[in-house]
């Protein structure tokens, strides 16, 4: 028996949101790679923010003269040299493509949610990558959407966290991380504090991972927040199958599923077995005549496709035809519905070589219009 392939996790990505406090990024990076037992030194960093936040991040973190990101790496060589430049600062845009300076209105929040979701989908698409997401910065709605998007897309190797900074260093404008050589900072009330006393704690956040509830097409493409949530919700709704052969319409729950005529006929044939109480079927018991009758209603009796199917099945149902169509139908439903496809799949009964199949749906959950 061959061994299962092992995926090498070569990319370690840190994703964070910030608003007007860019130090959240260096504090998180310090907590991950220097302090405590986190032991996660990113190979690349991505920052999600507003236009105002991006300007602050460029000046405070990346500026050649005193950029705190460069200072952190110089103080702590164990962090390596993670890739982080202006191209990895992702600015949230509105529906017209204009950068948002802040997030206040419902429309701006929707744009933030879509940007966060699309970026999360993109960064979790690479199987060789491990993603660590920090929700410590930005407005509360940004942190919520980032955490929610993490729940929707996270894989087993990904982590979510919040960084905690001890008082009075939290929100101090000059504190970005505890430097290797301690410094003295002045507070607003004229007191002085020593950075050697600063404590940064990384709090890991457990989440419910819902990635497998999404259709593969959504994982592979551009995902909006509403589409992604709807796909997960669909997997939790009661199953309902409606097939209308004249309009070639298939609805699973509330999702329209597009099927080629042959697969549409195959699903309709299986639905008819349930509606007519024919019970489980194998290739030996399945009626090729009944399938061809359903197929004829879709493609018409004079079509080449119908003639080819009729010729192939003139001796009765063919085992290869039966099994191939079952496999193709399962793949198509899984691609379009994700985890929500499960109630619409074929179940099995009996043991080989006498295994039979039937739709898992109850008769009452099927509406079939021939």
Describe it for me?
There is one protein chain. By secondary structure, the chain is α/β, with parallel strands linked by helices. It contains eleven helices and 14 strands. The chain has two domains: 221 residues, no CATH class; 132 residues, Arc Repressor Mutant, subunit A (Orthogonal Bundle), CATH 1.10.10. A six-stranded mixed sheet has the order 3-2-1-4-5-8, with helices on both faces. A four-stranded mixed sheet has the order 11-10-9-14, with helices on one face. A two-stranded antiparallel sheet has the order 6-7. Strand 1, helix 1 and strand 2 form a beta-alpha-beta unit. The longest helix is centred in the last third of the chain and has 19 residues. It starts with 10 loop residues before the first strand and ends with a strand. The model has no long low-confidence stretch (mean pLDDT 89).
Topology:
Elements: E1 11-17, H1 23-33, E2 44-49, H2 51-62, H3 68-75, E3 89-91, H4 106-123, E4 129-134, H5 140-153, E5 159-165, E6 184-186, E7 192-194, E8 200-204, H6 216-220, H7 225-236, E9 241-244, E10 249-252, E11 255-256, H8 261-275, H9 288-299, H10 304-312, H11 319-337, E12 346-349, E13 356-359, E14 366-369
Parallel strand pairs: 1-2, 1-4, 2-3, 4-5, 9-14
Antiparallel strand pairs: 5-8, 6-7, 9-10, 10-11, 12-13
Helix pairs in contact: 4-5, 8-9, 9-10
């Amino acid at each position: 028996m061959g061994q299962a392939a092992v995926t090498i996790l070569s990319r370690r990505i840190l994703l964070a949101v910030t608003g007007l406090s860019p130090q959240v990024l260096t504090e998180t990076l310090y907590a991950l790679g220097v302090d405590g037992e986190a032991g996660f030194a990113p190979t690349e960093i991505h920052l999600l923010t507003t236009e105002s936040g991006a300007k602050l991040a460029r000046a405070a973190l990346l500026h050649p003269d005193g950029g705190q990101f460069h200072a952190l790496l110089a103080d702590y060589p164990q962090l390596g040299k993670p890739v982080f430049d202006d191209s990895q600062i992702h600015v949230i845009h509105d529906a017209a493509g204009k950068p948002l300076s802040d997030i206040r209105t419902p429309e701006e929040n929707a744009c933030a949610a879509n940007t966060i979701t699309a970026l999360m989908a993109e960064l979790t698409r690479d199987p060789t990558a491990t993603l660590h997401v920090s929700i410590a910065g930005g407005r509360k709605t940004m942190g919520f959407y980032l955490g929610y998007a993490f729940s929707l897309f996270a894989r087993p190797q990904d982590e979510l966290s919040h960084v905690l900074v001890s008082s009075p260093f939290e929100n101090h404008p000059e504190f970005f991380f505890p430097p290797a050589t301690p410094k003295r900072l002045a507070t607003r009330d004229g007191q002085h504090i020593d950075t050697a006393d600063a404590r940064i704690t990384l709090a890991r956040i457990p989440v419910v991972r819902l990635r497998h509830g999404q259709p593969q097409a959504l994982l592979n493409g551009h995902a909006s927040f509403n589409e992604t949530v709807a796909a997960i919700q669909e997997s939790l709704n009661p199953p309902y199958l409606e097939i209308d052969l004249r309009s070639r319409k298939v609805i699973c729950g509330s999702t329209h599923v597009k099927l080629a005529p042959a697969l549409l006929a195959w699903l309709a044939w299986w639905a008819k077995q349930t509606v007519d109480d024919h019970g489980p079927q194998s290739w030996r018991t399945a009626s090729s005549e009944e399938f061809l009758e359903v197929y004829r209603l879709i493609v018409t009796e004079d079509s080449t496709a119908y003639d080819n199917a009729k010729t192939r099945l003139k001796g009765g149902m063919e085992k290869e035809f039966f099994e191939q169509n079952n496999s193709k139908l399962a793949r198509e439903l899984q691609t379009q519905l994700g985890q929500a496809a499960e109630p619409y799949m074929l179940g099995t009964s009996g043991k080989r070589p006498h295994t039979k199949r039937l739709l898992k749906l109850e008769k009452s959950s099927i509406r079939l219009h021939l």
